[in-house]
Amino acid sequence: MSKIRTLLLTLTCSALLLGAVGTGQALASHGQTTFFEGSQDLLEASTRPKAIAQLQSLGVKALRVELSWANVAPGANLATRPSFDATNPGYYAWGEYDALIAEAQRLHWQVLLTVTSPVPRWATSNKKAPYVTRPDDRDFKEFMTAVGRHYGSQVTLFSIWNEPNHPAFLQPQFASNGAPASPRIYRGLYQAGYEGLRAGGLARPRVLFGETAPTGFDSVKSLLRRERSKALLHDVAPLAFLREALCLNARYKKAGSCGELLMSGYAHHAYTKAVPPSYVDPQRDDVEIGTLSRLSNALNLAARAHAIPGGLPIYLTEFGVQSKPNKYLGVSAAQQAEYDAMAEHIAWSNPQVAAFSQYLLKDDPLGGAPGASVHGGSTGFQTGLEYVNGSHKPLYSGWPLPLTVSKHGHGFSLWGLVRPATGSTKVTILVRARGSKTYKTLKTLTTGSTGYWSLSSSTPGQYWRVRWVGPSGAKYEGPPIQAH
Description:
The protein is α/β, with parallel strands linked by helices.
């Protein structure tokens, strides 16, 4: 896992005479692990070989895997817990999780294992579907002991719960009085899970806290009269969730006797709406990619209150830009490639961010409006590099070679990454003038040791793209990118 960046390089560009100047320095202080989550394409034996081959060609070097407790536990549909030693991994049906993690080991890919709901029916407080209501801390500790014993030597990072501030994954989100309830439930689960990993043989487990969804409410008291019980099914805003889970008040001061929680990083899902990634959400406790600094500031304040360790890195463990045909949150396929690279650049520019991510190789089937999953439906994510039928979007060629072009005075600032590279390499940047049908070489430059590069140019253009030839002769060319 790449270490948190402790120093930002200043990229200086001298005055340009006839075109462009590239930065050839190594950019060694910059870098972030990129986790790829392929979901069912990677977990199903029939689709895994093709998906793995695709990810190799795209430059993937790390996977995020969501391990559902109910998927592997004995008697998951029973109301009464079966009689078995829940700390013994031999009682669980690990199935395709084993096969996928073993393949990642063979390829020397890092693995982030997010252990999450749904949970066994017998581990819930109400024994009712969707089996996410107040999971039992003791049962979870025993399960995490088994997880630690089974996967402890194969997993780079563990994370506890997916989007615990979202009612599809943990309930109740709000108490009957409209105040947040899920943060304290999550704190108990996190502590139980952490102790379970220690009991499983990991003396100092590397565990991420949070995995929060990007938006929500601080309170739903004002909604109770109009929405009644449905008001309690809204998300809790991520920063409100963070404060309550860490026993902090609105000023990030201790609001209880809670001690400091041990963790290796804070995980967050900084999805945004159908807008450029720079969009600033007016809701102050929401954290989308354009307001990532809110999370950085919150973590620094929480550390000052001795609620968490200082200097905690941020892991953006789930991210993607929705494209059409998603009619609620989708942008055009061309914009998806542009916005995804812009979001990655924003993350890279934040010195506290240690990891970025891509959620989905292939789109989900279309679902309903946002929030439909809470009421028994499905939403479906169109964040993939491929459409649901397997045909490629522009992002498929753009993801290995992310490129951003920003207007800067009378010129342009370009930033990019050659993701499949394993060291310093040469990359060619092309530009197409307005009214022209052909691209010309703007600059061929040498990237830093981690594949990143930057460039300042006075050459006008309408579109830019990147070309790279790998050591094996494989040719890569990104999609056309406009300046923003």
